[in-house]
Specification:
The chain is of the alpha/beta class. It folds into 2 domains: 273 residues, Rossmann fold, CATH 3.40.50.300; 104 residues, 2-Layer Sandwich (Translation Initiation Factor IF3), CATH 3.30.110. The chain has 14 helices and 8 strands. Strands 2-3-1-4-5 form a 5-stranded parallel beta sheet, sandwiched between helices. A 3-stranded antiparallel beta sheet has the order 6-8-7. Helix 2 crosses helix 9 and helix 7 crosses helix 8.
Length: 402
């Protein structure tokens, strides 16, 4: 099922110019203070920023950890609403409104300078206004300028080419309201259980999760302000629109596809043309299990004697050694068994171990053994002995040490 795109608004040129001027005043003030407090050489921002926006109830919280895993981001997401948790801000948010741009921009940029954000950061709820959009553009320009200024210095490694992703999770109004109200009921049930049992932590009870009118207004704010702000960045940064009304597994599959595709766009076109012939890891592993099962069944049908011999060898010769190495999770085994002169026997052995949850590799080593010395020529004649070296890896035993 496809979701209709929310309409975007068009503002008079005078209003847009005022917003740009406001953004310049706010950002220049914040930046000047940053340089005074940190020094330009310490203004080290994450290489990758993922700006995660979405309609209320679209699943930002549900998908944030998934996105972190996909992109290898260690730091917890920066939730802008949590950064501005003052009484005044809570009152504004309870009405479905937003906190001022100056507060948002100032606190957020300082947060991005924290060491744990350097491998990448996810911003949840930014930008939400045109002023914040303009500040984001100026931040990107400053990061590019910093990279250029420090390019030939010992600090160059700390100033990488910035990569910004805009990701929008979208659901329509009816779905958004239904999900908000459902969350409200789940919060009430959870908090009632916590209060009665004394176990666990209370969840936040948001007014917008209990009142359909407030939930509708929250969606309206997203549609008229946040979405418009995010779409305005489409022509500048990597942009991802995700239909979040689908089942979660499909939503996450689309997130993977979008980020993998955009990762290719980050490469120089010549580099991408060279690498595109190689498959993505996700493409290879998607059907790996099914392919493994088919191969093993085919061995049993087409070469039953060979497969039986390999299984018997694993059971009698290898497993006793593997069991003795259960703590380390690593066993290296040598064999001269002629069974493995048949290359297919090696393939069967590796597939069997894979099916059982092990990682197995095999190497062939040829060892020359002197057999005869030619008295006339002085040459030593050798025979070659084949030694198969198997390496078996698996999750070892976890020993509790006092």
């Amino acid at each position: 099922m496809s979701s209709p795109l929310p309409e975007t608004s068009s503002k008079p040129a005078v209003t847009a110019d005022l917003e740009i001027k406001d953004a310049q005043l706010i950002f220049n003030h914040v930046w000047k203070q940053l340089e005074a407090d940190y020094g330009r050489e310490k203004l080290r921002f994450p290489k990758e920023l993922i700006l995660l926006g979405g309609a209320p109830g679209a699943g930002k919280g549900t998908n944030t950890d998934f996105i972190r895993q996909v992109r290898g981001i260690d730091a917890q997401p920066i939730v802008v609403s949590a950064l501005l948790d003052t009484p005044e801000a809570r009152e504004i948010k309870a009405r479905g409104g937003m906190v001022g741009d100056r507060e948002v921009v100032g606190i957020l940029i300082r947060k991005l300078l924290e060491p744990e954000q350097q491998n990448g950061a996810i911003l949840d709820g930014f930008p939400r206004t045109k002023v914040q959009v303009e500040c984001l553009k100026m931040l990107f320009d400053k990061m590019v300028r910093l990279r250029r200024d420090f390019l030939d210095t010992p600090d160059a490694a700390h100033f990488k080419q910035p990569i910004f992703h805009i990701m929008v999770l979208f659901v329509d109004e009816a779905e958004s309201i239904a999900r908000q109200l459902k969350r409200g009921q789940e919060v009430l049930a959870h908090n009632a259980e916590v209060r009665s049992s004394g176990l666990g932590e209370l969840w936040e009870e948001r007014a917008t999760d209990f009142d359909p009118a407030l939930a509708r207004n929250r969606y309206k704010v997203f549609k008229e302000k946040t979405y418009d702000a995010l779409v305005s960045l489409k022509e500048i940064f990597h942009y991802h629109f995700i239909n979040a009304q689908m089942p979660l597994e499909l939503v996450q599959e689309n997130i993977i596809k979008e980020l993998e595709y955009q990762s290719s766009l980050e490469l120089d076109p010549r580099t991408f043309d060279l690498l595109r012939k190689l498959p993505l890891a996700s493409e290879i592993i998607r059907h790996a299990r099914q392919d493994l099962v088919r191969r093993l069944d085919a061995y049993k049908v087409e070469k039953p004697e060979l497969m039986d011999a390999v299984v018997e060898f694993i059971e009698s010769k290898m497993m006793p050694i593997i069991v003795r190495h259960a703590i380390s999770g690593r066993a290296d085994i040598n064999s001269e068994n002629k069974l493995f002169h048949d290359a297919e026997a090696l393939a069967i052995l590796i597939d069997i171990f894979s099916e059982r949850g092990f990682h197995a590799t095999a190497d062939l080593h040829l060892i020359e053994i002197p057999e005869r010395f030619d008295l006339q020529t002085g040459e030593i004649q050798c025979r070659k002995k084949k030694v198969f070296r198997f390496s078996i890896r698996f999750k070892g035993s976890e020993i509790r040490r006092g």
